[in-house]
Design a protein that fits this description.
Blueprint: E1 5-18, E2 27-41, E3 49-54, H1 68-79, E4 87-93, H2 103-118, H3 125-136, H4 139-147, E5 150-155, E6 194-199, E7 206-212, H5 218-223, H6 231-247, H7 255-261, H8 268-271, H9 278-282, E8 292-297, E9 304-308, H10 312-324, E10 336-341, E11 349-355
Parallel strand pairs: 3-4
Antiparallel strand pairs: 1-2, 1-11, 2-4, 2-5, 5-6, 7-9, 7-10, 8-9
Helix pairs in contact: 1-2, 2-3, 2-4, 3-4, 6-7
The structure holds adenosine-5'-triphosphate and L-homoserine.
Length: 357
């Protein structure tokens, strides 16, 4: 009997919110909004075909080296001396692109899993996380999307430089239909690139996300951050971070404690010129919006995350109103959508069918 060969792979990856409160590049949570990928393995010699449905579908590249999911999968395969086999891929992605809900992190996670399954790599989840971290370059989104729940994570100092992020990779090198010649094998990442813990989160808490109709790329939003911070600002965030992580686990979360603990001095202020209306939105309080615990930018923005225990839709509408009276870069009012999401326990899940001869 020959070894089983995969015939069909189904992958589901949750979106994520990150930078929660003072947790820039640290805190992330997986959300009940899912990227799904369905892959059928084609006979050798066939061309890979990608069908993409979902948010802003026309902007997503459908060629193997350009599409983030397949480019990632090719790279992971190449790291193991293999080539991604030809596939018929259906990607359905309701996660809005470039809005701070971890679409790229979810795509990277899907790509790593796709390679693992299609090329029978046998990677553990922890090893997959090493690859995701290397590719994404910061840990908050991919840790939450791969592992699920409310996560706190850090990268080991050795790969903290942003140039390791595979978004910069010339994927064409790794995406031919043949395994790359040995001399061009990319170096797999060292082990345990990051460390993480899953934190308890009160089941009463919902993530109200208010998603404006404009994109903000993470690359641009990272480029406006300062290279160094004052001691006062670092202490400001560290103090709140330690209080916030425990305060969010209480069965009856206290807005009195959480609201102040969700303040940040590391990224929001520097990015506010990229998100019109942000200072007014971040000034919303539990007094004005009963049920609100705390409010911040989700990921690199422009989406706003309101953690709340009640009145979810009306909290969302308050933010919408502010955007409706703010002017976007095209001179018109900013339209937005409110989604009330759960922080989900499960991260990425997948199933693979095999041909056994
Ligand atoms: N499912 C997908 N398939 C292919 N490419 C994707 C997919 N999802 C995201 N991308 C790519 O990632 C880009 C968005 O990444 P970016 O890091 O700028 O924002 P984000 O991940 O949505 O937000 P944030 O990192 O702030 O949470 C998209 O413009 C697209 O090029
Ligand atoms: N921590 C990341 C999240 C976005 O991917 C940032 O703010 O740049």
């Amino acid at each position: 009997m020959s070894a089983p060969t995969p015939t069909h792979i189904k992958i589901t990856v949750p979106a994520s919110t990150s930078n929660i409160g003072p947790g820039f590049d640290v805190l992330g949570a997986s959300l009940s909004l899912y990227l799904s990928v369905s892959a059928t393995l084609l006979p050798a010699g066939s061309a890979t075909a990608i069908v993409y449905t979902g948010n802003n579908a026309h902007t997503v590249p459908l060629t193997v080296p350009q599409n983030l999911i397949t480019a990632t999968a090719c790279y992971i395969a190449a790291c193991h001396g293999k080539a991604l086999p030809p596939l018929e891929l259906h990607i359905d992605n309701p996660i809005p692109l470039g809005r701070g809900l971890g679409s790229s992190g979810s795509a990277v996670v899907a790509g790593v899993i796709l390679a693992n399954e299609a090329c029978l790599l046998g990677l553990s989840k922890e090893r997959m996380l090493d690859f995701c971290l290397l590719i994404e370059g910061h840990p908050d989104n991919v840790t939450a999307s791969l592992l699920g729940g409310f996560c706190s994570s850090y990268l080991s100092a050795s790969i903290h430089d942003e140039h390791v992020a595979l978004h910069n990779l010339d994927a064409t090198v790794y995406c031919s239909n043949n395994p790359p010649p040995n001399g061009r094998l990319p170096l797999p990442p060292v082990e345990n690139i990051g460390r993480h813990v899953r934190l308890p989160l009160s089941p009463a808490i919902r993530a109200v996300v208010i998603i404006p109709k404009f994109e903000l790329s993470t690359k641009l939003a990272r480029s406006v951050l300062p290279a160094s911070y004052s001691r006062a600002d670092v202490i400001f965030n560290l103090q709140r971070l330690s209080v916030l992580t425990l305060a969010l686990s209480s069965p009856e979360p206290s807005s009195d404690l959480i609201y102040g603990a969700m303040q940040d001095r590391v990224h929001q202020h520097y990015r506010q010129h990229l998100v019109p209306g942000l200072p007014q939105i971040l000034a919303l309080t539990p007094e004005k919006c009963p049920g609100l615990l705390g409010i911040c930018v989700s990921g690199a923005g422009p989406t706003v995350l309101a953690l709340a225990v009640a009145n979810f839709e009306s909290i969302g509408r308050e933010v919408q109103h502010i955007w409706a009276s703010s002017m976007g870069s095209d001179g018109s009012a900013i339209e937005s959508e409110v989604r009330v999401l759960e922080v989900v326990d499960d991260g990425a899940t997948w199933s693979t069918s095999y041909n056994v001869e």
